[in-house]
Amino acid sequence: MTTEPRKRRGPYVSGREAQRTILDAARDVFAERGFRGGVLRDVAERAGVSAGNIIHHFGSKQGLLVALLEERDIGSNLDLQNPAGGTFIEGLRELIRVNAADRPMVRLFATLAAEATEAGHPAHRFFRDRYALVRTAVTSGVEAARERGDLPAGPPAAEIAAGIIAVMDGLQTQWLLDDTFDMVAAFDAHLRAVGARLH
Predict the structure, then answer these.
(1) Cβ(198)–Cβ(93) under 8 Å?
(2) Across residues 105-124, what is the average pLDDT?
(3) For a FRET experiment, which of 49, 52, 72, 195 has its CA 20 to 30 Å from that of 163?
(4) Whole-angstrom distance, CA of residue 104 vs CA of residue 112
(5) What are the structural domain ranges in the chain?
(6) Where are the alpha helices (DSSP H) in 149-182?
(7) Does residue 75 have a pLDDT over 70?
(8) Cα(96)–Cα(167) distance, rounded to whole angstroms?
(9) What is 10-71's CATH superfamily?
(10) pLDDT at 155 over 60
(11) Angle at 71 (CA atoms; ends 46, 23), nearest 5 degrees
């Protein structure tokens, strides 16, 4: 008589599950206390693992932070040049809607971005580079929107792009402080105020 070999979970599967649990815990701890204030012991306690287990998977607290930021950059899966809605303006509106559905990640990024303005912060370079990339993408989007007639002519596209990013960040902060605040509607109002054509 033969029997089917028993399936083994193996270290790869259990390791991936442990990493997912640790990242979820780190997201909450760093969002609540910042990177400086959140310690590995807090993350370990929330994840139900040891601090040594975190080091095993991520190497250090800084390694954990980098993995968390790179794992899910807000809006990284949205192409502002070729959005689902077909236009740059619709891509921006979709980004706001996506962010409005994920408060924990928005809170994490808002907390860490403010903290990372310090040059010695381990996420300083990540956020500096991220903002440079976003400004470039939004500047190109503004230029394309003007060509389509979705935005009026005006100041340099790079300056309009910086303003759009500032508005989005500011609306997110207000929304994090007051969950009754409708940042989607407020962003649409801003777009109308700058002459954007909404489809």
Answers:
(1) yes
(2) 90
(3) 72
(4) 12
(5) 10-71, 88-193
(6) 157-177
(7) no
(8) 11
(9) Homeodomain-like (1.10.10.60)
(10) yes
(11) 10
